[in-house]
Write a structure and sequence with these properties.
Oligomer: single chain
CATH architecture: Orthogonal Bundle
Radius of gyration: 14 Å
Number of strands: 0
Strand content: under 5%
Largest sheet: none
CATH class: Mainly Alpha
Number of helices: 4
Length: 105
């Protein structure tokens, strides 16, 4: 796969996952602001890249995420499960986006 094809595959996967996240947000009345949406989109694109390339995350400490609500962690895990091949640490990192966006309510 050349670079353009790789970029297209990453973007297609990220777009698919962002559509799923939009549905989750609507169902839970979570409305991220523009900056939060941009950061989430960037993170999901990086997740798509790691999913397709197998690039690992740096080590992440579970204790850093103890204050994240079970709802945000569950939402994040649902999204990570869409990829099918990412570690649980991805959900920990992603959960922060959901937690922050929930506070907009």
């Amino acid at each position: 796969m050349n670079t353009a094809e790789n970029d297209q595959a990453i973007q297609a996967l990220a777009d698919k996952v962002m559509a799923q996240i939009a549905e989750l947000f609507i169902a839970r009345k979570i409305i991220p602001n523009a900056v939060q949406q941009q950061m989430l989109t960037s993170h999901v694109r990086a997740m798509a890249l790691r999913s397709l390339t197998g690039e690992p995350l740096p080590e992440v400490e579970a204790e850093l995420f103890e204050d994240i609500s079970p709802e945000s962690m569950s939402l994040a895990q649902q999204v990570v499960d869409l990829f099918g091949n990412l570690p649980k640490e991805e959900a920990w990192l992603l959960s922060v986006h959901f937690e922050v966006a929930k506070e907009n309510q």
